[in-house]
Sequence to fold (615 residues):
Amino acid sequence: MKTLIFLIRKEFRQIKRNKVLLPIIFIMPILQLLILVHATTFQIRNVNIGVVDNDKSTTSLNLINTLGASEFFSITAFPAHISEAESMLAKSQIDMIMVIPQNFGSNLVREKQADIQFIPNAINVNFATLAYSYATMVLRSFNIRIITETTPTIMPVQHKVVNIIPRYYFNSEMNYKWYMFPGIMVILITMIGLFLSGLNLVREKEIGTSEQLNVTPIKKHHFILAKLIPFLIIGLLELTLATVLGILVYNVPFEGNFLVLVGFTFIYLFVVLGIGLLISTMANTQQQMMFVAFFVVIIFILLSGIFTPAESMPNWVQKLNVINPIAYFMKVIRMVMLKGSGINNLIHELISMTIYAIIVLSLATFRYRKTS
Amino acid sequence: MNIITVKNLVKKFGSFTANDNLNFEVRKGEIFGFLGANGAGKTTAIRILCGLSTPTSGEISVAGYNVYTQTEELKKNIGYMSQKFSLYEDLTIYENIELYGGIYGLGLKKIKHRTTELLSNLKMYELKDTLIGKLPLGWKQKLAFSVAMLHEPAIVFLDEPTGGVDPVTRRQFWDLIYEASNSGVTIFVTTHYMDEAEYCDRVTIMNNGIIEALDTPNNLKEKYSAKNMNEVFIKIARPNITH
Fold:
């Protein structure tokens, strides 16, 4: 126990003297939270539309104006021909083409129906789907107006419509920042945990100080704990800092109990720090450690459902999330922050993470070799 | 009385044999020189004796402990100074001493006492709050030796302790070694400076993983009819070079 205190004190002294580490620990997270939360918006605005109007009637003009009046769209070009529009789409000058066929206006009156065509740039599938569905929404209101205006009856047709009035639970304002903020926090805490602990250990191997430690009667678990505890404390400080920032800057509603989040983060940090240490017991240079850690982290982050819900991923991919600590943390942090979930609702995650922590740390301690 | 016994020590890395059937004993309290060209297998052997590396085969006992099964007990009784300087450059002299003192289980009081003792001896006491990284190499080496002696081990292993150090500091370093030896500590030292070999009680000369000679410097000079250890070494390590 006394030995452990000496070892931890040494780690803190080194962290304190490291001119690069401290800014990484405290400034990088602030910047990430201030910038990245905005970078991951799913909402789209200002879709640039090029209209190929082959009709040039009052009705077509009316349609174009309706679309242009929406906050989602701006009509930026009127190419004369579809081929010209396509080349603009290819150059990314516009995001979507709307083609209005000849006789659109008269067909609508005579046949009571007419077609138009949307051609969105679908490189980003999500963007194309949203742009298309926004356009459909705008068109629907256009339709209703047309029907009322052009139906030549004195008694307008009664439309029987079921009105849907949604109320969005847990993120009532549908604020994507509230959804993304906890996600970015997860990335932050994970990166700090995984990289700092692991790099620290490999660095000692590189400069040769670990050999001097290996020739002492130091206990392996003391060594591993001394590499873990300082970064555990830093990770929890980071969590607090990020939470305060989220509440002040983004007004994220913190529905749950902060202590529940601290408790879960505590266990989670054991897991990621353990993974970092495990990787570093197998790596000989900081470069190797970085490379492997990046590989692991990127896979885990994308699988975790930070951008897209893990539930809509293929079944076998979801199964991979059983061993993905980030997926557990991602779920828990959003549940606690936005839903106000308490320990009762998190028992499964809590037990899984605890088992994970025990396995990873045992492996790291076992893999750490004092004798080669 | 022998403090180190090595019988048929073999260490292989894949198909490469770094130590090929070494046999020697080190007597308690002597300065035992381990000589050889670069790559002769000195560091491999010293790492095995310190419990840092497991031998492929052979019977080896250090300070009464078996190097296969009792590495941790063994480590309590030895000090080691590696070829590569390995104190923490971003900690002060005192912080380094405190750390190693803590690891060897000395109390704070004992650590403070040993710090004063060791640093006064090195005439470096007023530097105790200086970062190690700011010291010249020779001073660092002397400190590393003192830290290896911190817990008063029975044997100290020094792996090329004076590499890259100027002649004056080397001389001072050897004064430290003599001092430790006089207080009863066994010194096991590797070097490729042949003048240093003259300071040892007995030396072995290794070449290509094999011990070619083991005797006192005087006996070796007589046997190879050489003026100094340098000639002895050249005659053993490079037998086809003639003057």
